Amino acid sequence: MTDAVVDDxxxxxxxxxxxxxxxxxxxxxxxxxDFDRVMADIGDPEQALHTARAHLTSWxxxxxxxxxxxxxxxxxxxxxxxxxxxxxxxxxxxxxVFRALRQLPRALEALFPLAATLPPxxxxxxxxxxxxxxxxxxxxxxxxxxxxxxxxxxxxxxxxGFSLYVPxxxxxxxxxxxxxxxxxGSGNGRDFLWSWLRAARSLGAILVAPTATGxxxxxxxxxxxxxxxxxxxxxxxxxxxxxxARMLLTGMSDGGTFCYVSGLERSSPFTxxxxxxxxxxxxxxxxxxxxxxxxxxxxxxxxQLDWMFPVEIARxxxxxxxxxxxxxxxxxxxxxxxxxxxxxxxELLRWLMS
Length: 354
Fold this sequence. Notes:
Layout: H1 3-29, H2 35-42, H3 45-54, H4 64-88, H5 94-101, H6 103-111, H7 119-124, H8 134-142, E1 149-152, E2 162-165, E3 176-182, H9 189-203, E4 206-210, H10 225-239, E5 242-252, H11 254-263, E6 272-276, H12 282-287, H13 290-293, E7 297-303, H14 311-323, E8 327-333, H15 344-353
Parallel strand pairs: 3-4, 3-5, 5-6, 6-7, 7-8
Antiparallel strand pairs: 1-2, 2-4
């Protein structure tokens, strides 16, 4: 790289990553009554990003792909911040907050291909739980340049496709744990992949993020999603070595509820279930296959502040499933609203791998 390009990277990357971390903080701690406080907590990191971008020079064509990734990620981050600030000023509502936060995974997707060549970005895409894991960093450095994220008919707006993450250091000489992560209502797998990628990259797991065949998962009526999940799983297993004893079905909100709908079926191939911020009807435990439920590892993750599915639902679900013979682990997070707790992923993976 030229000195000018290196200088520009050193100028823009720190405020860009700080802004993305601030947006992640908002996404994690978002609770409607606390919105103004959460926004005050993050300060205004986007101002430093605005200033840094104003000082960027023109880059040689050899580095155009890096500049494009930086520009794409910065634009997405700034649009997200602008949307959140508008709601702060009373120019929108909770729907506009969610709309603004949709820009965060777009920024992450733009930056991730550069993790192979820029160590600060590689570090950014690791979970804090592995901050002292020097062998992992050496392994990642030795695997630099390998494609790791793939999309199969999963462009934004498409339904029924999936996105896949295969760790850069994947080898076919052993079986790998698999996580199939289901997005929330009206979401998509391409975006939800980024809720899990850090943990999968840090601990070594195949990650699949499908998109529902309809506007959300088939929670009522004909179930077109379960056959599609099986199709996707079969396709992934034909490409990479999966441990049949360690296959987790997890999801957020509607995706978590569909973990119950699909994962409690007798023929489900998944060995572990982990619904997050989900709802559950007691009849589901009563009509579920007894043999399927007996000894089935289920981890329920729910927030005390959940305003969509009150925490009492999760508590009753824990009791109903345990009474039906499942091996239930229950995690109630006191500062979690109806949000995705990314910090739970490493513990879920360790539970899966144990």
